[in-house]
UniProtKB/TrEMBL annotation:
Positions that bind NADP(+): 86-93
Keyword list, A-Z: Metal-binding, Multifunctional enzyme, NADP, Oxidoreductase
The protein's assembly and partners: Homooctamer.
Domain Malic enzyme NAD-binding: 173-410
Keyword NADP assigned: yes
Organism lineage: Bacteria, Pseudomonadati, Pseudomonadota, Alphaproteobacteria, Hyphomicrobiales
Organism: Aureimonas fodinaquatilis
Protein known as: NADP-dependent malic enzyme
GO molecular function: acyltransferase activity; malic enzyme activity; metal ion binding; NAD binding; oxidoreductase activity, acting on the CH-OH group of donors, NAD or NADP as acceptor
Domain Malic enzyme N-terminal stretches: 28-161
Length: 768
């Protein structure tokens, strides 16, 4: 009978209560299903359902492989449990397992964009489980078995793998084994031990523990060095109770009967059993620099603080997200399925699992990405005892594991749809990780290997330091960082970054730079007649890093500048106006923003600079913005947006847009532009044609030009928030040299994007 151990609760006060609230509000559960196609009218209905739907049905009946093209099957996974081994809660039954299975579904979606139905089945007998799951093959591209207890899970998986033509993966076995193997590999590297020599003791001899041991053995661990224990104590040769053929592989000829008897000299404790079963004092008996993997959920076999108090030299892992070293199968299952589904793998084989182990282990030894660092809190982890494996939030996981798995599938001959275009595939994964990926591609292509130098006013900022490393790796520019050398050095070390001043980037030290006098002189020459006296100029060049950056650009020492991570926009734009100024033929500097939304990119101008532009200003903004949009490889479709729709009002703002339209049409006759029009008419050709059948704008506008700063900036922020869009910008338009002012909330990815934009601009200016 399903039952639950009432003593197993979360160890964090109030967490149970918070978790109940989280699951109940604002609506019950953690998931819903959303359509991916519009279903707004009779025609959509005829396509989505009868009669149109018959067409894909007929095609699939002729060729079943077409299900991958006409249905969501190829991206759909079933997370299936019978609730017999739910976390460490035991056999609590299928219904009570549903929150965990919904949780797994959310993780699949969040980390790898895989859709999941969680399926809890009321079945305990192997035959019944196998029949039910096998019958689901037409629906799914893969099966993730979850929390089914040993030994039944072994036979269930074995039989399903033999029967089904899609991947069947028991996550508690193989997902856990892969992440455990990666952590073991890295821990042994740090401890200077070989897998062939280490002594391993387990608590637990169930699904997870046995699968971990099997994988560790295939990686070199020796059977004679392994001892298993479970609820009945040591798994020894001759034991009759609770023995099965999978466990008996590890049965030992020994007189020892308890965990306490066998832990002496162990290098690895592998806990996949139940909370609190490892008494801290037992750790004293372990070998030097032991690896303690207390992986039972939600309560580990030993709490890390208790373990640490006894063994300061131990490397400690748990399955939980609230301690360092979260060894949990979430770091594996979304990504291994991503790779398997993307190449139409018919199974997940040993080669694919080893590829995943290698990818995870290697990733931990690289520098931590900004997103992963955030997932860990304020301290940036560096490969070491407290950072053996990456955080589940590390965006590089999908970029490394999925392709490695897909390649291994192809190589081992199980990929039914091998990846045809690897660049396109990596783009797709990148787009998922950084939604800016694809749209930024032409900009990155233009800027790569151009040799341009970009100066950063906020050189000491963590985001700039991280961005500088990426910019160098991607060969986008030679960074010049304004900052104190000692601070730069300390921060680079703290964030675990590899780049070094002088070797990888240049430094301008605001406190002591040999060019200081020249900078002051040049600065005074620019601003001496703008109310700045020589004394003030000296102070500014010591303290205002944006002013220093502008001088560096105007002296030709840098090809562009990035500033704005601290301080007010108005101060930065003043410095840029005063020193760099507007380009020849441009009357006023302006700005444009890019929002990357789920339905595509949208540009907004002037979103940051000109408060109340005149008709000629608006015409200039529209032209400069259109040129900038083309740099992204996008043909601009410009709408001058207003409260007035094609002459429906004669207010001052409406009139100035009409005037601006006439100016732009004359200057850029080939540009698709129209106005003034409502915001909805800009986005919907249907609506627009009803009022203006011969509009010179076709389709959906991608560049909205506004009559005032208020209108543009308010719309930008509302759309950004409502659509959860990614903001790239503001992109300054019409400056004499590339110069961009970031917002204080920009991420290091934002710094990289804006730098690439500055470099691309510098490259195109040179080409004329
Ligand atoms: N961090 C991670 O990624 C993962 C963690 N886990 C955790 O591992 C644990 C086991 O899961 P799983 O293998 O799927 O379940 P199984 O039911 O298949 O195996 C449980 C094993 O633990 C043993 N066990 C239970 N209670 C005790 C105890 N008090 N002392 C010693 N041994 C005990 C059982 O022994 P017996 O058969 O004698 O009852 C059995 O060998 C769970 O806590 C689960 O949350 C699982 C998968 C992934
Ligand atoms: C993490 C997991 O799958 C478990 O604890 O069962
Ligand atoms: Mg599980």
């Amino acid at each position: 009978m399903p039952g639950i151990d009432e003593t197993v609760t979360n160890t964090v006060p109030d967490l149970d209560e918070q978790a109940l609230f989280y699951h109940r509000h604002p609506q019950p559960g953690k998931l819903e299903i959303r359509p991916t196609k519009t279903l707004g009218n009779q025609r959509d209905l005829a396509l989505a359902y009868s009669p149109g739907v018959a067409a894909p049905c007929r095609e699939i009946a002729k060729d079943p492989a077409l299900a991958a093209e006409y249905t969501s099957r190829a991206n759909l996974v079933a997370v299936i449990s019978n609730g017999t081994a739910v976390l460490g809660l035991g056999n609590i039954g299928p219904l009570a397992s549903k929150p965990v299975m919904e949780g797994k579904a959310v993780l699949f979606k969040k980390f790898a964009d895989i859709d999941v139905f969680d399926i809890e089945i009321d079945a305990q007998e192997i035959d019944r489980i196998v029949d039910v799951v096998a019958a689901l093959e037409p629906t799914f591209g893969g099966i993730n078995l979850e929390d089914i207890k040993a030994p039944e899970c072994f036979e269930v998986e074995e039989r399903l793998r033999a029967r089904m033509g899609i991947p069947v993966f028991h996550d508690d076995q193989h997902g856990t084994a892969i992440i455990v193997a990666a952590a073991v590999r890295n821990a042994l590297l740090l401890a200077g031990k070989n897998i062939e020599d280490v002594k391993i003791v387990t608590s637990g001899a169930g699904a997870a523990a046995l699968a971990c041991l099997n994988l560790l053995v295939s990686l070199g661990a020796r059977l004679e060095n392994i001892t298993c224990t479970d609820k009945d104590g040591v798994v020894y040769l001759g034991r009759n109770d609770h023995m099965d053929r999978w466990m008996s592989v590890y049965a030992k000829e020994t007189e020892a009967r308890t965990l306490a008897d066998v832990i002496e000299g162990a290098d690895i404790f592998l806990g996949l059993s139940a909370g609190g079963v490892l008494k801290p004092e037992l750790l004293e008996k372990m070998a030097e620099r032991p690896l303690v993997m207390a992986l039972a959920n939600p309560t580990p076999e030993v709490m890390p603080d208790l373990a640490r108090a006894v063994r300061a030299d131990a490397m400690i892992c748990t399955g939980r997200s609230d301690f360092p070293n979260q060894v949990n199968n979430v770091i594996c299952f979304p990504f291994i399925f991503r790779g398997a589904l993307d190449c139409g793998a018919t199974t997940i084989n040993e080669e694919m699992k080893i590829a995943a182990v290698d990818a995870i282990a290697e990733l931990s030894r690289e520098e931590v990405s900004e997103v992963a660092a955030k997932a860990y809190g304020s301290e940036t982890p560096v490969f070491g005892p407290d950072y053996l494996i990456p955080s589940p939030f590390d965006p590089r996981l999908i970029l490394k594991i999925a392709p490695a798995v897909a390649r291994a599938a192809e190589k081992s001959g199980v990929a039914a749809r091998p990846i045809a275009d690897w660049d396109a595939y990596m783009d797709k994964l990148n787009r998922f990780v950084f939604r800016s990926g694809l749209i930024m591609k032409p900009i990155f292509a233009l800027s790569r290997r151009s040799g341009k130098r970009i100066i950063f006013a906020d050189g000491e900022d963590e985001r700039v330091l991280r961005a500088a490393q990426v910019l160098l790796e991607e060969k986008i520019c030679w960074p010049i960082l304004i900052g104190r050398p000692s601070v730069l050095q300390t921060r680079l070390e703290r964030f675990g970054l590899r780049i070094r001043p002088g070797k990888d980037f240049e430094v301008v030290n605001p406190e002591d730079d040999p060019r200081y006098r020249d900078y002051v002189e040049d600065y005074f020459a620019k601003v001496g007649r703008l109310g700045v006296n020589p004394d003030t100029a000296r102070t500014i060049i010591r303290t205002n890093t944006t002013a220093i950056a502008t001088i560096s650009v105007s002296r030709g020492e840098a090809d562009g500048l990035i500033c704005g991570l601290a301080g007010r926009f108005s101060r930065h734009i003043r410095d840029i106006r005063q020193v760099i100024g507007a380009a020849d033929g441009v009357s006023r500097i302006s700005a444009m923003s890019l929002l990357i939304t789920q339905s595509g990119p949208m540009f907004f101008a002037d979103s940051y600079v000109q408060e109340d532009p005149s008709a000629t200003d608006i015409a200039e903004i529209a032209q400069l913005a259109a040129i900038e949009v083309r740099r992204f490889g996008i043909e601009p479709k410009v709408a001058l947006v207003s409260h007035s729709n094609f002459g429906s009002a004669d207010t001052e703002d409406a009139c100035k847009l009409r005037e601006a339209l006439a100016i732009v049409r004359k200057a850029m006759p080939n540009l698709e532009i129209d106005g003034e029009m409502h915001g909805d008419a800009a986005l919907s050709e249907d609506l627009r044609r009803r009022v203006m059948p011969h509009s010179t704008l076709s389709g959906t506008a991608n560049l909205l030009v506004f009559p005032t700063l208020d209108a543009a900036n308010i719309t930008l922020n509302v759309v950004k928030t409502m659509t959860d869009a990614l903001h790239v910008g503001p992109i300054l338009l019409g400056t004499n040299s590339p110069a961009h002012i970031l917002t204080p909330s920009a991420t290091s990815r934002g710094v990289v994007n804006m730098t690439a934009i500055a470099v691309a601009e510098a490259v195109q200016r040179r080409r004329g």
